[in-house]
Amino acid sequence: MGMKPICCGDRKDAEILRDAGDQRLPLNEVNPVWLRTPAAPYTAALVEEREIDLSRIKETFENVKRRHAAFVVEGVGGWRVPITANYYMSDLVNDLGLPVVVVVANRLGALNHAILTVEAIRHQGLTCAGLILNDTAVQADEMSSVATTTNGAVLESLVAAPILFTISYEQRVLSL
């Protein structure tokens, strides 16, 4: 069972989550806030002249939580993506009391991104349950190849969080 509290752009992620789990759950419970503009939630809300209903997200989460022993909540855009002018994805995760899994683009620069994100999660008093490496593209040069083949081991040693798995580029292409 999965939930995506906020979708921006198309609703494909929410539909995939619904279809992969308990299909009796209506799409509006899997995804209580849908903004059609493909941008950060705060930006999309500004473009659409809408307010994001945080109470609706939290109420839907609690209702789903009561009916399901376990489920995954997919974020939107990253740890510090603004949902409103003064409320970020990190605040929502904190309010919902969830452990965090960080999805890291497995490429040059991944170490910096992952380390900063895990530090921010822990600084907020939350748990980083692990990392997922996402191979975003076929690696074209030797430097990228060295980074992608070593990022997992280096991250596990530096952030003390397990690499849960790696999604290869080929797996992503086949699943789309």
Task: Map the helices and strands.
Blueprint: E1 2-3, E2 6-8, H1 12-20, H2 27-30, E3 33-35, H3 41-48, H4 54-67, E4 72-73, E5 82-84, E6 87-88, H5 89-96, E7 100-105, H6 110-123, E8 128-134, H7 142-159, E9 163-167, H8 169-175
Describe the structure.
The chain is an alpha/beta fold and 176 residues long. The protein has two domains: 1-97, Rossmann fold (3-Layer(aba) Sandwich); 99-176. It is built from eight helices and nine strands. The strands form four sheets. The chain has a three-stranded parallel β-sheet with strand order 7-8-9. A two-stranded parallel sheet has the order 1-4. A two-stranded parallel sheet has the order 2-3. Strand 7, helix 6 (110-123) and strand 8 form a beta-alpha-beta unit. The longest helix has 18 residues, at 142-159. The protein is globular.
